[in-house]
S8 family serine peptidase (Natronoglycomyces albus), 614 residues
Amino acid sequence: MSKKTTLGRRLLAVAATGALAAGSFALITSPAHAEGNILGTDNPEAIEGSYIVTLKDGASTASAGSLSSTYDAEITAELPIINGFAAEMSEADAKRLAADSSVDFVEQDAIASVTSAGVQPNPPSWGLDRIDQVNLPLDNSYSYPNQGSGVTAYIFDSGMNLGHEEFTGRIAGSRDYISSGGNGADCNGHGTHVAGTVGGTRTGVAKNVDFFNIKVLDCEGNGPWSGTINGLQWVANNASGPSVVNMSLGGGFNQSVNNAVNNTVAAGVPVVVASGNSNANACNYSPASAQNALTVNNSTSSDARRFDSNFGSCTDLFAPGDRIYAPWIGGSNRYNTIGGTSMASPHVAGAAAMYLAENPSATPSQVYSAITSNASTGLVSNPGSGSPNRLLNIDFIGGSDPGDPEDEFSISLSPSSGTISAGESVTATLSSETTSGDAQEVTLSHSGAGSGVTVEFANDTLTTGNSTEVTFTASTNAPAGSHSITVTAAGSVERTAGYSLTVEGDSTPPECRGENSSSQTIHAGWIAASNIRLDCGSARGSVTVTVDVSHASKGELWYRLVGPNGASYDLKPFGSADRGTYTVNVGGKSGTYTLEVWNFSNRNGTLNGWSVAG
């Protein structure tokens, strides 16, 4: 598998720079000490005087004591999972230690922090509804094959609300790497939310999974990498039975934590991680870039990559992560709605738990392969350069033995969307791949083509491993509109791929305009939302959005428009200036528009009114 962390938490590891003072120059000079390089010295989240040491293969962690004595270091944790240890020492001593013949590398410890962003009042969550079906619209139900019974989910996060109603009787234990002697209680909220999505009784994917609470982040959502590595060491040594790790955390690239993740997987425990919320290549972040992790990007309710989700060839699939409703801290029945790749990852961890409930002897690679090869393909818009266009789908989960694989395959369409006018055609290539067992002949069919649209296959059957051409045609009288078409390949199993076809109309769109002048308070840390409905007939194209907001620091606001088709458009990103007027191409203009004003400051503001014209 090719491999690979927000307005909330990131986990970073850095090393501090420094140099030994030279001895005085005279006829006889002081003996020079060899110096080595320290990794991660450019990380702004570095913890001064704290380092993670990885020893060479021939060296043993038993030698840590003698090394600490030689280099005046105080060992804070032994880390056999990376054949090393964490220690506090001066920068100069760390450089000397890095040059020791028994040391592979020294990396400065750094801060981990949460990866979520945004808060709003409690709407119902849509993530569960999305993962049990291929195409939109949602069907207002969540069908699951099992509840993850007998599987343990290890939640690496800010702790858990130990008394929440959704976890009753299922927290098998806690380990606290933040407070010595602590019970792992969550004082941030992030960890409780993540755990709830993995397996809450009401809001979770795997509704009867057991939890093991691994607290590695503090009340501010921060924690050192060394604590996370120590926790992974404990899981690798102590996990028994079918298990899965979720890590909704991340930061700059860190080889030490990547090694710890890879070694945990080698010990037999799948590790699911968030790709991160920097709108950047996940290969530059950890643990998103860990070779053996299952790395998850964030998709919205309109099947688009969320604006801040990381992407790239180090990631494996998308899952719902925008505006997810789940448990919170502050009481046994408290809930909150937040978003980020931190919310996408636990959907996949929950799916892994359900797969392991049916296939308890499955290896991590078998779990990963089952989830990625059965994901819906070609549905996510703007997935980002290098990202596999796969969206989590749990429909496949059953009781087959992964140790004896059946004939399996996957299909994909490229491109996965097209725009034509009435009387025109567009083609796409349907590719297939044999993912296990032998190649097989599959029969092709389609659904979802609306009035005036036809779909033709160059070949109605296909041997997996080959490709064929698919032609999408709009008749001369086809009405303007959008069509979500599903192509199905049926063999020993059925696999699907999605294609979005837009048929453009010829008529000149009528002018239309709507306004909402009702003012409302934009509370600090919350979202103000306001609706306008337009009736523009079949008109398509761009609309002009005018926003009137009063706030002492508009740079700390983010304006987002949700169009009639459910797609989200950034009008004013966080940190940018308020231009007042914005132009957006929304496709079909008729329908309901929602303006969201996200307030990331600690001061209230006012949405005075807004309008849409097209």
User: Anything to note?
Assistant: Confidence is low (pLDDT under 50) at residues 1-32, 115-124, 399-405. Residues 341-358 form the longest helix (18 residues). Residues 408-504 form a domain with the Immunoglobulin-like fold (CATH 2.60.40.10).
